Amino acid sequence: MLELILGIVFLIYILFIGQLIYGFNRMKRFSKKEFTPKTSFTIVVPFRNEKENLPNLLHSISLLNYPKELVEIILVDDDSDDEFRIQNLEFRIPMIKNIRKSNSPKKDAIETAIQVAKNDWIITTDADCLVQKNWLTTFDQYIQENEVKIVASGVCYIPKSDFLSAFQNLDFLSLQGATIGSFGIGKPFMCNGANFAYSKQFFKELNGFQGNETIASGDDVFLLQKAVSFSPKKVGFLLAKESIVATKPVDTWSELFQQRVRWASKSTGYSSVYGKMLAIVVFSGNLAWILSFLLWLVGFLLDQNIFMLFVALKFLIDFILIYKTANFFESKLQYVLASSLLYPFFSVSVAVYSLFGNYNWKGRNFKK
């Protein structure tokens, strides 16, 4: 009976991940063409204690192949402990102080910037990111070709070769694959605020982040889900290599755990039914993997080949999605087998802890 239950859980898991793979395959790669730039962007960068990273981001922004008169950059300082000064840049960049009014510093920072933004489109990224020279050019073409008001795009890690970086890269690729796949099946529920654009007017029509101010993070997914509910045809995903933003992996397992807990804590506030279902299915699939492993270890399973079948099927379906995503991002896969064995324990621990525990973010402690 137990083996039957575990088998059903794995079957549902495989069907859901298979659906995301199908959605990924349905997504069309965006082809860059020669266009006359028309879209005016305000790049919003909320930051806290990013003195080391901001110069690199601003340098990459300075290399953008886009008319400077159509670009505005606003840095929002969220009570940093260190002092950052902008130096040696050709264009003026205002730095403003975050106006706190909720439990979410980042949402407050974005809203603070939007209040003073002059341009039609807001595009957010993070201080530890790097953008490509055709980042805005590709967004502009996509916006001109499609009647959209909110656009998500890809994020990848700056590659490193150690096991921790390889592990989080595989995990991140699975999230990016799920994001792209969900757009492909018409059920988008997730995106990344490090590469996220929306019409300023549409943001106001959606009443911004109103309704989820108590959750510290989620400036990206909650706005996306609200937009999907309000006007799904106005939401798009830009699947183009030129629009990918690169970010840095964290340096310690403790930081990784805290980061993933922060991300997982948003799932309880999802308005997307599909997003909630997928979160439950992924948690159940990984928990079933752990139970199967423990039962196999003590010899409780009547047929030990069942565990090997479960492991093989889960590894295969996960690998297909990750491989497809890695191929698009041109990301190198390392320590795949070792990571796949560790991941269920890591994922379940993060999910359980996110339901009850607090987490640290940028030197602050946030309660669940």
Structural description of this entry:
This protein is of the alpha/beta class and about 375 residues long. Helices cover about 50% and strands about 15% of the residues. It has eleven helices and twelve strands. It has helices at about 1-25, 55-60, 105-115, 135-145, 165-185, 200-205, 220-230, 255-265, 275-295, 305-330, 335-355; strands at about 40-45, 70-75, 95, 120-125, 130, 150-155, 155, 195-200, 235-240, 245, 360, 365. The strands form three sheets. Strands 3-2-1-4-8-6-9 form a seven-stranded mixed sheet, sandwiched between helices. It has a three-stranded mixed sheet with strand order 5-10-7. The chain has a two-stranded antiparallel ribbon with strand order 11-12. Strand 11 and strand 12 (about 365) form a beta hairpin. It is globular. The two termini are about 35 Å apart. The mean pLDDT is about 90.
